[in-house]
Design goal:
By secondary structure, this protein is mainly beta. The chain has one helix and eleven strands. Helix content is about 5%, strand content about 50%.
Amino acid sequence: QVHIVESGGGLVQPGGSLRLSCAASESIFSVYDISWYRQAPGKQRELVAAITRAGTPNYADSVKGRFTISRDNAKNTVYLQMNSLKPEDTAIYYCRGFRFWGQGTQVTVSS
């Protein structure tokens, strides 16, 4: 059965940190690269970070130096460590593997 489930979102103050998790089924995790996207109200969904099966990361310019994507192959899970969060990082964050998407997790950065 195919599934992708995100977790770890929440409310955090500017400058704070959160770690998002993306748990995927083996059939997705072992075959495809995994990506994190986000969508803010009134804006298009945008790519935040991606990681290949070999573990090579790639980041949007807006998050370079603040976000870190990693994967734990034993747990079929990809993480997105988000540091130095800004109000403009507020969005619903989605995990994607090929054409499969999770339901999203809300991240709100506000004082």
